[in-house]
Design brief:
Strand content: 25-35%
Helix content: 25-40%
Number of strands: 26
Structural class: alpha+beta
Strand order of the largest sheet: 6-9-10-26-25-24-19-12
């Protein structure tokens, strides 16, 4: 007999009745029914009920075990009586009578229970992550993650891609976040960096002639934490292709992701990837208040400035006299009650705005539809009717209004749209809704210096090539794209700028001379001088994808060993202080923290 088990805790059925078997696992829970001890024995595959009574030679030892002890038992498989069958378990028709037991690993008193659905502080869960990971929900999430990665790999191989690994220790490269630096012992005073992404290497793979690359790539960024972002490291499905257009990249990655979401999405609807809309960055900001819209929510915001210009509502009328200002409306179908409108106005105040104007339409005493609310009284029936017609609203509906420079209210407008959709039951919950966001601006104006700086990826090929860079920088759009799903950015990518002369010009506009570009990105710039092919690609965030599939809003629920929100590993006590010997070897000195 095997040293630890003849079967897993999910394998035994009525076919095994009468057999002597050996099982190993953890004590999920212990129950004492009138002197007969029942143990739910658990391993990663499932649960088997084992029992012991005073007639067993192992009874005295079984009495000693407690929750989460790791044990090995030998026993005889018996059929449960019909009224005791547990249909929820694959092993629910049998139980194992214990003849022998060995304690493989005893457990101290538990800081958190594995059995049950008790809630524990996140700090406790992360400090004792190895216990937290034994819980059923976490076992399910981690298995989901591995299955998703396996599926992604297979789908990429099926599309003719090959997986190549890129360096982890490399040079510092600006990717939009802070680098994690690694001091060099062999080169005192110099530092490596952990890669924020394999960006430059995957482009060099294209220059090397490999045509289709992918990798399940670890990425390292010293970022402030958010619920949907790890503060230190994350994994992405990274891919790059040569001789492709933007649409080619879409046509490659979209079926992969649609397949993954269909396979693991629990039956939720996944739209045909050929029908995923392509929305310009500008329109996404206007319609949804964000570049990662949730299209399950049908609400689309509109500009209604013309209806308030010169109107009796002085706040908006005066606001529109200033350059760069506008008024936007958020339609709210079925939201036409003063109670709901007041609640949304309070929401805006909590978000730091003075409030949010509104109009709602109701049935008047004469039986006809009328517009109600302070705004309606100020601007009059003709303007309110024009607004209603533009927004396509009717009796029982409402509209909310925000004004100013879009940058000052777009974020709140986007949040308000989400709240309205959720509270009014407009958002389709049983669906994964995807949208490509395209035509990102490459530059933005620095209000302090009057110069231009990169607003988005500086390595994207500008639409129109060199000719585009000779005009207004604020009009330049890049072949850059994101894929949004249910309010999250899942994919980011671009067609790359592979021509040195266009790259130098693009950086010159942002204030970087050719010498600095060569110093910072010398490896890539040099490579582009030796027959670089046009190429592009993208990266899909695996952690965030699994988070959506697991139906959780906290990314730490789908990462096996995550940091806390202060970027600390409470289990391994990281970051930790280096020893004096380590510092001397690296020729480093640690300054005390600033007061």
């Amino acid at each position: 007999m095997h040293a630890y088990r003849t079967h897993t805790c999910a394998q035994l059925t009525k076919e095994n009745v009468g057999q002597t078997v050996r099982l190993s696992g953890w004590v999920h829970r212990v129950r004492d029914h009138g002197g007969i001890l029942f143990i739910d024995l658990r391993d990663t595959y499932g649960v088997t009920q084992v029992l012991c009574d005073p007639d067993s030679p192992a009874f005295a030892d079984v009495e000693k075990v407690r929750s989460e002890w790791c044990i090995r038992i030998d026993g005889e498989v018996k059929a449960r009586s019909a009224d005791l069958v547990n249909p929820k378990l694959p092993t629910g028709e049998i139980e194992v009578f214990v003849r022998d037991i060995e304690v493989l690993g005893a457990s101290k008193e538990l800081p958190l229970m594995v059995f049950g659905d008790q809630e524990y502080p996140e700090e406790t869960r992360l400090k004792y992550r190895y216990l937290d990971l034994r819980r059923d929900a976490m076992q399910t999430s981690m298995k989901l993650r591995t299955d998703v990665v396996r599926s992604m790999r297979q789908r990429m191989w099926d599309k003719g891609f090959r997986e190549f690994q890129t360096p982890i220790i490399t040079a510092s490269s600006p990717e939009g976040a802070r680098d994690f630096l690694v001091p060099s012992r062999l080169h005192p005073g110099k530092f490596y960096a952990l890669p924020q992404a394999p960006q430059q290497f995957k482009q060099l793979i294209m220059v090397s002639g490999y045509d289709k690359y992918f990798q399940i790539a670890p990425c390292f960024r010293d970022e402030d934490p958010r619920a949907d972002r790890s503060p230190t490291d994350f994994y992405q499905l990274d891919l790059e292709m040569s001789f492709v257009t933007q649409q080619d990249v879409f046509d490659t990655i979209a079926p992969v992701l649609a397949g993954v979401f269909s396979e693991f999405g629990g039956g939720k609807k996944v739209d045909n990837p050929a029908e995923w809309p392509q929305i310009s960055y500008r329109d996404a900001a206007l319609w949804y208040g964000t570049d990662k819209p949730d299209l399950r929510n049908p609400i689309k915001m509109q500009t209604v400035s013309e209806h308030f210009a010169g109107s009796g509502f002085a706040i908006f009328a005066k606001l529109l006299e200033q350059d760069g200002t506008e008024i936007r409306a958020i339609p709210a179908p079925t939201g036409g009650s003063r109670k709901f409108c007041d609640r949304m106005n309070a929401f805006a105040q909590k978000e730091g705005l003075p409030g949010m104007g509104y109009i709602f339409w109701r049935t008047a005493d004469n039986g006809e539809m009328e517009a109600a609310g302070p705004l309606a009284k100020n601007i009059g029936p003709e303007r309110t009717e024009a607004i209603r017609q533009q927004l396509g609203l009717g009796n029982g509906d409402a509209a909310f209004f925000l004004g100013g420079k879009p940058s000052s209210f777009e974020k709140v407008a986007g949040k308000a749209r989400t709240v309205i959709g959720d509270e009014l039951g407009l958002t389709e919950k049983d669906r994964f809704a995807f949208a490509w966001i395209v035509d990102f601006p490459i530059y933005q104006k620095d209000e302090e210096t009057g110069g231009y700086e990169f607003e988005h990826n500086p390595f994207s090929m500008p639409q129109g090539g060199m000719d585009a860079l000779l005009g207004d920088p604020l009009a330049v759009r890049g072949f850059q794209y994101d894929l949004a799903c249910n309010g999250y950015e899942l994919v980011s990518g671009a067609i790359r700028n592979h021509k040195p002369e266009i790259m130098f010009k693009a950086f010159e506009i942002a204030g970087y001379g050719e010498d600095e570009v060569r110093r910072r990105f010398g490896g890539m710039v040099n490579a582009f001088q030796y027959g670089a092919p046009p190429h592009g690609g993208c990266a899909a965030g695996i952690d965030r994808i699994v988070m959506l599939l697991a139906d959780t809003a906290n990314i730490r629920e789908v990462i096996m060993f995550p940091m806390n929100q202060r970027a600390e590993d409470l289990m391994m006590n990281a970051p930790s202080e280096p020893t004096n010997e380590q510092l001397r070897e690296l020729r480093l000195r640690v300054l005390p923290p600033e007061a």
